[in-house]
């Protein structure tokens, strides 16, 4: 067996199952799950119809490169969304099976398994970053997201000897779980570090379309504004899962540096990760339509407007820059740790939230997720309303 597998930690939801082991939730309540970031708004009818209208794709092996129609639809969406010249569909865009598998596979393309390099990650973080680093033969280095800096990563705190060994850096904007959005000066700093030390930047932007008025700045957009033609050493990743409420389609893309895209295409040709042409046809329809995205966004805005006044009475919680998570500090007002809060809430009110410490690692002497919980506002508004009331009632019992 690959010995690197032994270095992988349990996934957060496996830890959650263990935390809840032996607990019998209060039968007076129906279950409400805010623990997993899975969009639960209905998939748009026109996307369902596009899948039904293109059955022929099920009878053919799809090409790894994808159809030109899909790559052009993605290029045109990028141009509209970010105000950049449309990337070259032939060289700068590659369809992927969502963003998760691409985040993992990109590391296997970029990292030299014999090089013992470093992969820099935000902390807290999406655990795929860590697993991709470890299975690529590299060491993860975590930079704590500081609430004093609006949960930004302090890249100036990283020692030069770490940067000298860095081969890949993951960034997530809007961030999971904090919702923080990177600014242009922060991007400029990252690009300068990438130029100096030669590492690749993987920009995870899967939450970019869940915002509250100001569209988050993207990596390609920042590079364009700073005059970085060709997006050197930059790959952005996105998907339809959150934007269009179709996580089961597994439809996403990578875009950016054409040299990296070319190497990634070679890797994926062997990896066998080609998207069904039926799904590609539905994806074209999704990327070409913004009305359903605006309706989806309005739904999230409404849920945040209702949730925050309720939770602010009992927890330390703030409106995120973007995304669909609340990153709530629970200890100060309830005296409970994040795990105690999650277990107690599940037992007494049958509501699931995710302990923040499960989404982070101890780095520089602290776990930045400690005493926080992640609340995913993914359910329909009525269920979210009921869940917020239950969380508030539980918190009051421990205030």
Automatic annotation (TrEMBL):
InterPro entries, sorted: Aminotransferase_I/II_large, DapC_beta/gammaproteobac, LL-DAP_aminotransferase, PyrdxlP-dep_Trfase, PyrdxlP-dep_Trfase_major, PyrdxlP-dep_Trfase_small
PANTHER family: AMINO ACID AMINOTRANSFERASE, L-GLUTAMINE--4-(METHYLSULFANYL)-2-OXOBUTANOATE AMINOTRANSFERASE
Protein name: Succinyldiaminopimelate transaminase
GO biological process: lysine biosynthetic process via diaminopimelate
Keyword set includes Transferase: yes
Listed cofactors: pyridoxal 5'-phosphate
This protein's UniProt keywords: Aminotransferase, Transferase
UniProt keyword Zinc present: no
Classification lineage: Bacteria, Pseudomonadati, Pseudomonadota, Betaproteobacteria, Burkholderiales
Classification via SUPFAM superfamilies: PLP-dependent transferases (SSF53383)
Lineage: superkingdom: Bacteria
Organism: Oxalobacter paraformigenes
Residues annotated as domain Aminotransferase class I/classII large: 32-391
UniProt xrefs under Pfam families: Aminotran_1_2
MF terms in GO: pyridoxal phosphate binding; succinyldiaminopimelate transaminase activity
């Amino acid at each position: 067996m690959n010995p690197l597998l032994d270095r992988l930690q349990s996934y957060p939801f496996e830890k959650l199952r263990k935390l809840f082991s032996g607990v019998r939730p209060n039968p007076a309540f129906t279950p409400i799950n805010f623990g997993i970031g899975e969009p639960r708004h209905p998939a748009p009818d026109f996307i369902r119809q596009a899948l039904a209208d293109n059955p022929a794709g099920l009878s053919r092996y799809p090409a790894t490169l994808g159809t030109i129609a899909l790559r052009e639809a993605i290029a045109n969406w990028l141009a509209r969304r970010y105000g950049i010249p449309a990337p070259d569909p032939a060289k700068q865009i590659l369809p992927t099976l969502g963003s998760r598998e691409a985040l993992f596979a990109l590391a296997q393309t970029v990292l030299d398994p014999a090089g013992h390099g470093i992969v820099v990650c935000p902390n807290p973080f999406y655990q795929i970053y860590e697993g991709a680093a470890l299975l690529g033969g590299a060491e993860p280095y975590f930079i704590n997201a500081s609430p004093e800096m609006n949960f930004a990563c302090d890249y100036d705190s990283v020692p030069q000897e770490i940067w000298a060994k860095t081969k890949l850096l993951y960034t997530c904007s809007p961030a999971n779980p904090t919702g923080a959005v990177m600014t242009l000066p922060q991007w400029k700093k990252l690009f300068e570090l990438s130029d100096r030390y030669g590492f690749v930047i993987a920009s995870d932007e899967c939450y970019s379309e869940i915002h509250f008025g100001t569209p988050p700045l993207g990596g390609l957009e920042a590079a364009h504004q700073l005059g970085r033609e060709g997006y050197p050493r930059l790959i952005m990743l996105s998907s339809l899962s959150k934007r269009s409420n179709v996580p089961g389609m597994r439809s996403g893309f990578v875009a950016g540096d054409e040299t990296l895209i070319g190497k990634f295409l070679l890797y994926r040709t062997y990896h066998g990760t080609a998207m069904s042409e039926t799904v590609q046809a539905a994806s074209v329809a999704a990327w070409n339509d913004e009305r359903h995205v605006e309706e989806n966004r309005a739904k999230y805005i409404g849920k945040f407007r209702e949730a925050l006044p309720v939770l602010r009475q009992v927890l330390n919680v703030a409106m995120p820059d973007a995304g669909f998570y609340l990153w709530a500090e629970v200890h100060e007002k309830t005296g409970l740790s994040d795990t105690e809060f999650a277990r107690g809430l599940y037992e007494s009110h049958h509501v699931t939230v995710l302990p923040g410490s499960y989404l982070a690692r101890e780095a520089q002497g602290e776990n930045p997720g400690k005493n926080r919980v992640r609340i995913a506002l993914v359910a329909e508004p009525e269920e979210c309303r009921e869940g917020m009331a239950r969380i508030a009632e539980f918190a009051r019992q421990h205030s």
